[in-house]
Amino acid sequence: MIDQDLNIEERQMRKPIIAVDMDDTICHLVKRAIFHNNNDFPTHPLRYEDMHDWNTDHLRHPACTQEVFFARKGLYEELEFFDEHVVDEMRKIHEGYDLIIVTAAWPTAVIEKWNWLQKHMPFIPNENFLPIKRKNLLDFDLLIDDGAHNLIPAIERGKQVLCIPHPWNLKARKQYNIPLLTSWKGAKDRIDQIFRRR
Ligand SMILES: [Mg+2]
Predict the structure, then answer these.
(1) 39 alpha carbon to ligand 1 midpoint, in Å?
(2) What percentage of residues in the chain have a pLDDT greater than 90?
(3) Which residue, 2, 18, 175, 195, has fewest beta-carbon neighbours within 10 Å?
(4) Cα 30 to ligand 1 centroid, rounded to whole Å
């Protein structure tokens, strides 16, 4: 349903849609992928600090393709929380807002990602789990993400955003002065402030 279909009362009732990415937003993907890379390809060790760009193909061993690096079987079920606050804050956001999970996923990783969510954040219903790469097709009010390729189009569409800082988004977040979410502690309060301002 789009906004024009709602009457004023319904529009006032509608909870803002908070779209939250998974990898390197609520859990640590790149650090775990680096761990496996450095075990499997010790001649080409990687460091998180050196991941200055979204595309790190040039840093990896030729045999460590994108698929090897990002689509290792079971990888997405072993990821650690972004921090110790993320589960509580996501629960609070789910209770206060229309929380949706928006995550680009290798087809084989979709079930792993859903399993991770079910295990760690079982309050998120399956209709709120959207495996999607083209996030700009979605209507949301706020996007929390680490990917500049998602954040910048959202900003250009007039959406609120919060950027999870990582080396690969440093350039973009400085260029666009993107607001940061450095810890999940107090994230729900931060979102409340954003929507009170509007
Ligand atoms: Mg991400």
Answers:
(1) 23
(2) 83
(3) 2
(4) 9
Q: How confident is the model at residue 198 (pLDDT cuts 50, 70, 90)?
A: low
pLDDT tens, residue by residue, 62-117: 999 988 999 899 999 999 999 999 999 999 999 999 999 999 998 999 999 999 99
Ligand 1 mean position, distance from CA 54 (Å): 10
CA-to-CA separations, 108 to 47, 70, 76, 100, 114, in angstroms, rounded: 26, 11, 10, 21, 11
**3 Cα to the center of ligand 1, angstroms:** 28
The predicted model scores a pTM of 0.92
Give bridge partners of residue 131 from the DSSP assignment: 103
Task: Tell me the three state secondary structure of residue 192.
Answer: helix
Residue 25 Cα, ligand 1 centroid: separation in angstroms? 6
CA–centroid distance, residue 24 to ligand 1 (Å): 5
Label residue 130 by pLDDT band (50, 70, 90): very high
Asked whether 147 and 169 are in contact (CB, 8 A), the reply is: yes
